[in-house]
Amino acid sequence: MLMLKEFRDFVSRGNMLDLAIGVVIGAAFGKVTEGFMNFIINPLVGLIGGADFSDKFIILSGKEIPAVMAAHTLEEVKKAGGNALGYGAFISAFLNFLIVAFVMFLVIKAYNKFKKGEAAAVLAAPPDVALLTEIRDLLAKN
After folding, report:
1. Domain containing 125: what range?
2. How far apart, in whole angstroms, are the C-alpha atoms of residue 101 and residue 69?
3. What digits encode the pLDDT tens for the residues 32-87?
């Protein structure tokens, strides 16, 4: 019963809700990044290579099967019983990671800048308090 109470207290803390919201927003941002890669970056890179970049692969096994050799996508290779190294999908996933990491860096940088400005505003005394402090310091000198 004690463990259940501790768990309830843990879940009811504000941090748990913040974490849940962060996970949901992170998942949504991941989908946006994936869409950006699949529908913007990969086709642009595909212009250079002549095909969808995420479908680039090297056939590792099944080379003796004509259907594997005639395959144009990873799915076709797998259906034909072959094995392929999908380097295009890996590079695409890595670029996804770099984009997400860069955006997170920018978010944290902006947050830290905001917090620094907020801390400076808290530390700055109102003009009347600053004036009284200056008068006190002058009187203490004399």
Report:
1. 12-137
2. 37
3. 888 888 788 777 877 776 666 677 888 887 667 777 777 778 788 888 888 888 88
- State which amino acid sits at residue 110: A
Packing angle, helices 14-36 and 2-12, rounded to 10: 60
Q: Binning pLDDT at 50, 70 and 90, where does residue 18 land?
A: confident
Query: Given the structure tokens 């072959």, which residue do they identify?
Result: 82
52 belongs to a structural domain: yes
| DSSP type of residue 125 | P
Q: In this structure, is residue 107 part of a structural domain?
A: yes
- What predicted TM-score, i.e. pTM, was given to this entire model? 0.57
| Residue 6 within any structural domain of the chain | no
E strand segments, the chain? 58-61, 83-85
Flag whether 108 is in a domain.
Answer: yes
CATH assignment of the domain containing 84: 1.10.1200.120
